[in-house]
Amino acid sequence: MTGAARGGRGAQLEHTGLRPGWTTGACATAATTAAYTALLAGDFPDPVTITLPRGQTPSFALAAEELTDGRATAGVVKDAGDDPDVTHGALVRATVRLLPAGSGVVFRAGPGVGTVTRPGLPLPVGEPAVNPVPRQLMRDHVARVAERYGGSGDVEITVSVDDGEEIARSTWNPRLGILGGLSVLGTTGIVVPYSCSAWIDSIRRGVDVARAAGRRHVAGCTGSTSERTVVGEYGLPEDALLDMGDFAGAVLKYVRRHPVDRLTVCGGFAKLSKLAAGHLDLHSARSQVDKAFLAGLARRGGADAALAAEVAGANTGLAALQLCRAAGVPLGDLVATAARDQALAVLRGAPVAVDVICVDRSGAVVGRSGIA
Description:
By secondary structure, the protein is an alpha/beta fold. The chain has 13 helices and 18 strands.
């Protein structure tokens, strides 16, 4: 938008003046790339450059390197930018070991990286807590290094984080059954920093830009995955997208005073279950998934007492959703509808039509409300 204010996620971040950082998944990918390159080429690239899911190509300085016969370790210090991330400054290491041809890429949890011990997470019980997107990012970079230097691409990757087990005590991992350390996370590779006041101000600016551009339909999204889903559903342009993050209340209150014809709220099922229960701040430090509330919704959707009890005792919101889906209970739609009704209550009769879409970690729609 030459000569005019830009909208969308990137413009919101620019407006906050906050410096973005890198996820643990990006750091582990950089360390993996450097270690595998050293195994095949005999030397560590420093800095090492990787390509993130959205095409950015950051470079990382190595803080540790070790090369032995058939094994190499590289380490990268995580820079979370201006985000108050407990893992800021942590040393993320990847040890890459050559495996026989046909073995593929195998992931292991080293010291400071947790292991999944309970169901309901996007990884099976017993797996290292290296989430699906970082795993794919590491696989992709292993394949590129193998192609460049003539390797087979069959490797074992052990990810570790110095002092990770101690740092993890400040996270939700122990309560989720991820034991022994941290999770390796990230869907875009970039940590978007959140200062409450700065981000809420950026949301308001996003609404203003959308209205000035004549957008009649805008979407508040909790992150990049839900943003992709909403674009796929409705084809909305960038300046109609509001990166609301955890600040659902900020979007709703500002749209109440500055209406648009239609607002779509799209986000992860667990986050939007908090909105459905009446929380307007969706951050994990300030609101939690209420499994008893989900059990009550499930009962209204046809669940029997036994299923409702299972939902109330589920490890995560995702586990509760999976239980209900297996039983044919539309918990995703029920959550989306309850979240829409909460949004309408906050809007207090403002002339704004609202619908809500719940997605899973891959961006697949797992629940939706009607428009009201």
